[in-house]
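idk why but the lab printer keeps eating my pages so im just putting this in chat instead. protein + pyridoxal-5'-phosphate:
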Amino acid sequence: MPTLKTRERLSEVRYEIRGELARRARELEAQGRELIKLNIGNPGAFGFRAPEHLQRAIADHIHDTDPYTHQQGLPEAREAIAAHHRGRGTPNASPERVFIGNGVSELIDISLRALLNHGDEVLLPSPDYPLWSAATILNDGRPVYYRCAAEHGFLPDPDEIEALVSPRTRALVLINPNNPAGAVYPRALLERLVAVAAKHRLLLMVDEIYDGVLYDGARFEPLAPLAGDLPCLSFGGLSKVHRACGWRVGWAMLSGDPTACGDFHHAMDLLGALRLCANVPGQFAIQAALDGTDTIGPLCAPGGRLYEARRAVIESCATSEHLQLMAPAGALYAFPGVTGAAAEGFDDHAFALEVLETEDVLIVPGSSFNVPYRNHFRVTLLPEPEQLREVFRRLERVLQRRAEA
Ligand code: PLP
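predcted complex ->
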């Protein structure tokens, strides 16, 4: 029998957060092993719940959720998103420029499809959230990575970014607060990045899905107000700040001078129309989510579950001879690096597999985030603090064995 052929460019696409190691983890679970799985930033899987007033908003409207909505989303939800952006100082933030999608994931794909022609380049952070690379490749673009080096707090260097601009460059993608490294970008840096985009007429695409997940006084600066008249697409959603991943609700706010945006708005609208609309029940929670109630702040403050989980990871790395960590200032992950004797000949995949097979812990190898080095790994901060301390005791055992080998 001839076998089915698949899209060739898929061979360039990786999403290891749910890849081979996750498959092996399921096999082990089927054999009865009890695993601690730290591969996915899925709050609901760790006992977090969406705030009650969001749940209520959906329940109260459940009888209104049968029809399709407009392709860009429910008008009242779009108005709430636009108002949220206007409150931040985003210029030209009107509901007509809001696109609601099945998570930010769908909107990343749609917006790159709306933008890219074959061979166009997209400036992506390294490390990145790998969907950005995958969606660039699958929409016929070419990822061009700019470094966010550990020794510079995982922050990008605007001069390095500018040196990577070519006549084919179309967009500059930022992830702030950052997944996987937890960096939160200061205003002065964002201003320099806006200047690069302005000089080279790049679309700014900023993934701000973790915009409320901040620790120790870190300050989030939204990009769109700094971008002013420049075309800018800001992504946000309910998955992380509002702990409602499963509802699949994300949005993109287009800002900047409408004339400078050309046909982009129309392209987004058309692609949105082709998939009809986003999940409707979830859209009814958007107004409630943006009503000004801060439900994530207490979790990120001392004594809060995420803060204490982060503390557990920071302290575990600080007492390890083998690990180095930049304390995450935001988001739901830590991205430690292996140093010293254990780092000799280190291979992050082999390490992650050994940790899974011998210690029943699933982590994500750092190279899954499109970095050229292989001595990092990512864990999510979502488990109970004590469980994270136990995880790091187990990781330490493996690292110690390797250091002594
Ligand atoms: N962007 C980043 C940086 C993420 O970490 C994630 C999910 O982990 C997403 C986008 C996708 O989020 P959504 O659930 O809204 O599709």
